[in-house]
Amino acid sequence: MLTEYQIEALKKKLDERLDELCEEVRRELLDTEDQTYIKLAGQVHDIGEESVADLLVDLQLKEIERHIEEIKGIEAAFSRIASAKFGVCIDCQVTMELERLEAYPIAKRCHRCQENHERIYAGINRSSM
């Protein structure tokens, strides 16, 4: 079982990462707001170049999506902290190792269960909706 001190240290780490992610998303959204596309579009001379410009904008939006998914993971970790389930694997109910949580504080599965989960669901396309 995690001590209160360990949970508080991990909570602080989560808070700091959440602040970083929110700032990065804000910055990326401001940059994305047509500035990137306008700059690229001004350099576009044919359909091939236009699709490259679209791809670059899409890549930037994918980065924002990854940040948002991590933010959701942090919020879920805060919820597990509030319900005293933080650090407990959602599959096998075993307390996770502190080292795993320090490396990946939003982990919701122990290493063994995460490997099983990835093996089972590898390659399966799941809708993000």
Detailed description of the structure:
The structure is a single chain. By secondary structure, the chain is mainly α. It has a single domain, classed as Four Helix Bundle (Hemerythrin (Met), subunit A) (Up-down Bundle). Helices cover 71% and strands 0% of the residues. Helix 1 (4-32) runs antiparallel to helix 3 (47-82) and helix 2 (35-43) runs antiparallel to helix 3. It is flat, with a radius of gyration of 19 Å. The model is unreliable at 40-45 (pLDDT under 50).
Average pLDDT confidence is 82
Biggest pleated-sheet summary: none
Order of helices and strands: HHHHH
Relevant CATH superfamily = DksA, coiled-coil domain
Specify the helix fraction band.
Answer: over 70%
Q: How many E-type strands?
A: 0
Q: Can you lay out the helices and strands and say which pair or pack?
A:
Elements (H helix, E strand, L loop, with lengths): L3 H29 L2 H9 L3 H36 L15 H6 L7 H11 L8
Give me a quick take on this structure.
This protein has 129 residues and is an all-alpha fold. The protein contains five helices and no strands.
Keywords:
129 residues, mainly alpha, 5 helices, flat
